[in-house]
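Page 47, continued from p. 46.
Same chain as before, 525 aa.
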Amino acid sequence: MVRDLTLGRGGIEAIRRGSGLSRRALLRWAGCGAVGLTGPGLLAACGGGATAGTGSTTATATGVAAATTATSAVTTSGSITSTSASGAAVNTLTTASAATSTSSTAVSAQTGVVSKGQGTLRLFDYDSQPSEAPKQDLLKQFTQQTGYQVELDPDIPGAFEEKLLVQVASGSAPDVTKAYGDPLFSLIDRDAILDISAQVARDVSKAEIADWLPSQYHMFFDKGHQYALPKYCSSHVYFGNKALFRQAGVDFPTAKTTWDQLRSAGASLTKKQGDTYTQFALNNGMANLSGFLSQIVWSWGGEVVDPNDNAKCLLDQPAALDALQYVQDLIWKDHIAPQPNDVKALGSDLFGNAKFATEESGSSSLRDLRLQHPQLELDFFPNPLGPTGKTANYHTTDCYALLKGSASKNTDGAWQLLRFVTQPAWARMLIEVEQMQPARQSLAKEWLASVRSLTPTLQTANLEVFVTALAQARPQLRFSNDPKALAILNPVIDAVYNKNTNTARTAFAQAAPQVTAALRATSSS
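Result:
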């Protein structure tokens, strides 16, 4: 669900609704041995190699594996590595063939001391009602292994980070929280998240870190400190309604389709009845800096933020201005993407209800489309090529972090819980229940198989594009001070794309230096 027209994730990430989970699926991720607590700070699954303790006593865990579940060492297309140390890191996806392993393979084996204890820890990780029971089932295993009870906090509608900040200040916060993008950066900037650098260095193997997408993992660092571990990673590509393309006599886009080609086809994919638009070629998620706009700027060869200096805004550079103006023209000149009044007239769930021929969105939208529109003739294609001849796409930064000001005041127990919910078994549960694309490369094939098994209409769809898109994927951009930068840019985005009261070239050429000046002033104060 789009949280905010300018800051939201974009696309069709709607409120998730219920789905059943078969007994076979339940056993697949919840069976004994499927959940391994990793590293010296954690216990082995099913009580193996540990001496029971109570209160603050310690127990020794031997042979603790970083990934002790079946097929956890399967690679999908080789490996993904980072080509840049900056926040704009791009991943390189090698395509060497990799055999599927069905054996239980440990990424690492370590020996260490584990603190066992009593008391209650809290986890804020609301995704949807169907995921609550499976999470509770897995958390019972955590209780058996560590002695800690875990309570799942209820959903916090809206800007959950603001309510978490109140709890942090009052000392009543949950121990572990989900986070992503803007909420994550806000919590870090406002000193609400614990630095876990020492725990990661002690307990997380290099092999396990290498299994996570590098550019996502890098976004959890700030000024040399680490604040989170990955939850899942939704890559953003284009969703297409094949029936609407066929009705318009337009070939379905491929990896070679350019933005100019899609723009040319836009007139055929846009429909009117009298003066009223009934269908558009493109969706209405374009006034979105962290998602759509950043992707199109990148594909034009520009940058939003200087990769080597995130106190410098580059939206006034020629390539960025060309891209930003191109988007405004799609809406207000070509009118192949809707204007605000069009959206009001069209209703809701516009891609699912065949009002949009295409929609830029993330893999996390797949579950909703499966449940709400099972007969939708859906397929996928990479973000179109820009003038550089390259595509560019965005991925999410979904993660788990430890909050300061927790009610339990138990950092050791909270760290063990954080490690538990970042293990392959937890990721498998999210795949089965929510169809969440895993951040671990080793689980990509399992995700593809799960999505296809649940959605017969996607048997021949190009789901692999979500995995291969990570080769070009970049995480959500981040300024040195997001609130300062966005306070200037959000009104500009609104004026250009929602109101058409200024041209993109003029507005962003004026705004970018103002952003840089504000960020420089903040960093020097």
